[in-house]
Design brief:
With 78 residues, the protein is mainly alpha-helical. It has three helices and no strands.
Length: 78
Amino acid sequence: MNCPKVTNAHFVGVVCFIGFNYFVFVFQYMLGLKPGGYAILLGVFHVLFVLLLWSMGKAMAADPGRVPIYWGFFAEES
């Protein structure tokens, strides 16, 4: 992973936003519920959280591609 991608202000902002939401949901909300009700929801949340982080990493590491040669050719016709 490139260092400029990790030090980008947008990336740092997204990571802080995700981390804050994780803290609020898990530690402030879910652990305040009764012990029987939060175990399944917490498991589902963590599976979705791992999928979120994995897809974010894959999107950052993937090649964005390029614009096709004749892109916009048909958009100019009336």
